Amino acid sequence: MTLPKTASYFNQPLMVSIVVPEAWTGTQVDDSKFRLFGLPESGFEEYFDEYRVSLSYERRKPDSSGQDWFKQLVGQNNATMADDYNEYKLLEEAFYDIGSYKTYKKHYSWREEQTGLQLGQLHALLVGSPYALYIVNAAVLEPLADRYMPIFDSVLNSTRIIPRN
C-alpha cells in the first residue's frame, strides 16, 4: 500500500512528534489531548454532514506502578471495551516497542447501535515515562478501513516523545 504524502507534526503541549498525511488537519482539545482529521469522504451523507477519519493522542498520568502494571492495565482496558462496545471483535493485538517506549496496539471492530454502522479502530497505549501514558485512538468506517488502518499504524509507529529541557 502506498501512503499519502506526509509531513512532520509536532504538538508542543504533549511534546509529541508524528508523521501524518500532509492534508490532514487538527485541533487541540485541551492541554492533554489533540485530534487530527483526514480529508472529507463521500458516500456517508445519510449519516454525517461531513465524514472524516480521526486520530487522537492523549497524555495521562499512569494510575499504577510496579512490575506488571502495564499488562494489568491492558487486560482491564480490553475487558472494559469488550463490555462497552456493541459487537466488539478484537482483530489483532501486539506488544512491542516504538523507540524506547513500551507499546500495546490493537485493531478492533464494533457496530454502532443506532445507525448500524460498522467501525474499525486502532487503540494503542505507550509508556512515555513513569509519569506519562499516551493513549492513541483512531477510528474509521469499515468500508474505508483497508485504506486507513495502514495510515493509522504508520502514524503510531512514527511517534516520538520529545523530552522537556
Helix-strand blueprint:
Elements: E1 6-11, E2 16-21, E3 25-30, E4 33-37, E5 54-60, H1 69-84, E6 89-98, E7 101-111, E8 118-129, E9 132-141, H2 145-157, E10 160-161
Antiparallel strand pairs: 1-2, 2-10, 3-4, 4-5, 5-9, 6-7, 7-8, 8-9
Give a verbal description of the structure.
With 165 residues, this protein is of the alpha+beta class. It has one domain: Mog1/PsbP, alpha/beta/alpha sandwich (Protein Transport Mog1p, Chain A), CATH 3.40.1000. 18% of the residues lie in helices and 45% in strands. It contains 2 helices and 10 strands, in the order E-E-E-E-E-H-E-E-E-E-H-E. It has a 7-stranded antiparallel β-sheet, with helices on both faces. The mean pLDDT is 93.
Summarize the structure.
The protein is built from two helices and ten strands. It is α+β, with helices and mostly antiparallel strands. It has a single domain, classed as 3-Layer(aba) Sandwich (Protein Transport Mog1p, Chain A), CATH 3.40.1000.10.
Q: Percent of residues in helical segments?
A: 10-25%
Biggest sheet descriptor: 7 strands, antiparallel
Number of helices, where a helix is a run of at least 4 consecutive DSSP H or I residues: 2
Number of domains: 1
Q: What is the string of SSEs from the N terminus onward? A: EEEEEHEEEEHE
Shape: globular
The strands making up the biggest β-sheet line up spatially as 3-4-5-9-8-7-6
**Alpha-carbon Rg, integer:** 16 Å
Oligomer: single chain
Assign the CATH topology. Answer: Protein Transport Mog1p, Chain A
Low-pLDDT stretches are none
What structural class is derived from the secondary structure elements? alpha+beta
CATH C-level: Alpha Beta
Based on the structure given, which CATH architecture is correct? 3-Layer(aba) Sandwich
N- and C-termini, Cα separation: 38 Å
Q: What's the β-strand tally?
A: 10
